[in-house]
Design a protein that fits this description.
The chain is of the alpha+beta class. The chain has one helix at 70-79, and strands spanning 46-50, 53-57.
Length: 81
């Protein structure tokens, strides 16, 4: 077991894999982004209007799927940011 083995896993058998194009490794640990609720998201969300409401569309964002962002995400979750 490697030191960072609890920070990354990739499920190539998932029916939605790959959920994002353009990256070699996808960290499936954050399949549903824990930062979705953030107004000031560190990723690259796009906002669209649907039925009179502004919704966050994260299909072009790979921030939570990059292994190097694990610690940053965990810090944000711990700090309640």
């Amino acid at each position: 077991m490697t030191k960072a083995s609890g920070k990354f896993f990739e499920n190539r058998e998932c029916e939605y894999y790959p959920c994002h194009k353009g990256i070699d490794q996808i960290n499936c640990l954050f399949c549903f982004c824990p930062l979705y609720h953030l107004e000031n998201c560190p990723g690259a969300p796009v906002y669209k209007e649907k039925n009179g409401k502004k919704i966050k569309v994260c299909t072009g964002c790979v921030y939570p799927h990059r292994p190097e962002n694990y610690d940053k995400i965990m810090d944000q979750i711990r700090d309640g940011v």
